[in-house]
Amino acid sequence: MQDYHFELEMQVRDYECDIQGIVNNAVYQNYLEHTRHKFLNYVGLDFAQLHNDGIDAVVIKGELEYKLPLRPGDDFLVRLKIGKQGRLRIVFLQEVIRRADEKLMVRGRITSVLTKNGRPVSPEILENRFTAAGIVLENL
Question: What domains can be seen in the chain, in order of their start residue?
Fold first, then answer.
């Protein structure tokens, strides 16, 4: 993925691995979600405060492509690019990259919608924060 908007470094913890000694497939969802929340902080938004204001980001589709496994102690990066699809959908393209050799471990496409008090709303209500951070939501 080129031209990503945000990057977060993490390290695999032993308890995230299964009996095979590799990161359990479901744990990658946590890595991707944590990165999305940190990205929101980076652009000046707080996930919990948005909820308190009646705005929720709801994941409606998650597509993950597993390439290679991470193992205990591996340092890795999660890269993120945000865009939109149509009028209401926000798309996060994300990659998990092992630091030691820059190999792609997982590629994800997470699609979400914003709701305000339970009703879908346009992501335009957040776009000024993205613009202030130099991010333009392109169609992905």
Answer: 6-139 (3.10.129.10)
Q: How far apart are CA 63 and CA 121, in angstroms?
A: 23
Tell me how far apart the alpha carbons of residues 3 and 115 are, in angstroms, rounded to a whole number.
Answer: 28
Token pair of 116 as six digits? 């305000």
Q: Which helix (H) or strand (E) holds 115?
A: strand 103-116
Q: Are 28 and 106 in contact (CB under 8 A)?
A: yes
Q: Can you read off the two tokens belonging to residue 21?
A: 């000694």
Does the predicted model carry a pTM greater than 0.90?
yes
**31-89 residue pLDDT tens:** 999 999 999 999 999 889 999 999 999 999 999 999 999 999 999 999 999 999 999 99
